[in-house]
Fold this protein.
Amino acid sequence: MSETTATFRYDVYCSDVLTFYYGASAGFSFASLQSNQQMLASLHTRTQLYTRGMLSPNAGLTVEFNKYLALYYRFQYDLGRYFGAQPTWETTAPKWNHGIAHGLGARMRFW
């Protein structure tokens, strides 16, 4: 799956160490199916490219220990709609779909 999005982000600096941010992304994701995905696929639909428009508000928190190391958390809600054909997962699904994603990680700077 690949994405092409435009992102807006606004940072609120709570202190020298703690930063809160919020924003949104809007764009398209493109998926081609793999044979190991559990879905109803024929030879025709396995090679098809599916396009999904999406709007994704997000928020997060960053804690910087120094200029070389930081920890971050990100929460994102994803609202999307398939354009044209859509994959047929094991059940019938509407063209509108949504999801929630959490991310936790470390950012390291080497210079």
About this structure: The chain has a mean pLDDT of 83. The beta strands are 2-13, 18-32, 49-66, 69-83, 96-108. The CA atoms of residues 78 and 99 lie 5 Å apart.
